[in-house]
Here is the input.
Amino acid sequence: MKNSFDEKILEEAQDWLSAKRNVILATVTQTWGSSPRPVGSRMIINDKGDFSGSVSGGCVETAVVRECLGLLKDKKTHKKIEFKVSNESAWEIGLACGGEIAIFLEQIN
Amino acid sequence: MKKQLLKEIIEKKEKKIEFAIVTDLQNGESCIFEKNKPIDKNFEKYKDKIDLHFRSKKDGIIEGTNIFLETYIRPIKIIIVGAVHIAQYLVNFAKSLNFEISIIDPRGYFATEKRFPNIKVINKWPKEAFEDIETNQNSALIALTHDPKIDDPALQHALKNNFFYIGALGSKKTHENRCKRLKEAGFKDDEIKRIFGPIGIKLGGRSAPEIALSIVAQLVSETYKK
Here is the structure.
C-alpha cells in the first residue's frame, strides 16, 4: 500500500525519460525474514549508472545497479533477482540483517 | 513497463485516484487496475484474484500466480488553520512526506503567496473556506491560530466530518477552555477527546521547526492507526 508518504520515484523516472535516458525500474516483490525495506520499495537506474531510491538499506544497491546495466547491455526487458544473507567478509553483496529479498527489474520502454 | 503506462500512473497519482499497478513477473507485462473498471485483456483471467488482493490494500505477489500488485490508496489531505510561523515549517516537512496541504487563514497579512509559495492558501474564514475543500475521513486538521474565532469553527467542521486526525495548538489551559466551548456547542466528551491538544508528541523543543516536527510525527503515527 502506498499512501501519501510515497517516495515519488516513478515521477523521477519520468524526468529521466524526458532527459532521454534509458531507465530500469527495480521493485522489491518479496521479502523473507528481516529485510530492510518492504515489498513495493523502488529504485530506478539509468544507462549512466545513476540511481535513486532504494531496495535495501544500502546493502545490495550496487549489485542492483550492476544487474541493471547488464540488462541494458543484453537488451532484455525484465529479470528477477534474489539476494540472500551476506557472509562475514566486508563488502560482500548481501543483506547483513539475515533477510532475503526478491527484486523485479524492468526496463521502461 | 511501457512509457505510456508510467505516464498514466503518474496522472492517476496526481488525480488522487485509488488504483493498483499489476505486473506479470513472468513476461514483464503490466497494466493499471481500478475497481469496477475493465482490466487489460492480458490480465482478464486474474481479475477476481486481483480484485480480492486490491481490497486488502497490500502490495505483493498474488498467491499461486506470478502477478505482482502494488496498490495506491487515496492520499491524505492536510488542512492547516493559521498561516503562522510553525505552518511554514510544516510545509517544508510536507514536501518530503508528500502531503497534500491547504492553509486557511482569514488574516490577509499572514496568508500570502510570498510566505507560502506553491501552496494552496485560502484567505477566508474556515466556514467559507471549507466550502471550497472536499474533506472526509482521510483528512487531517492542524489548528494553529489558538484564536477561538478562527480555530473553533474549523475544529467543529473536522469533528463533524470525521477527520482521522485533529490537533490544536495551545497550552493545557487553552485546550481546557476550548473543550468547554465545544461542549457548549453540543459536542460529546468522546468526540472532543479525539482532538490532540496540546498538539504534537513530546519532544521537548519549543522552536517553530521543533513544534512542526512534533506535529508531523504525531500525524504520521496516527495515519498508521487508521
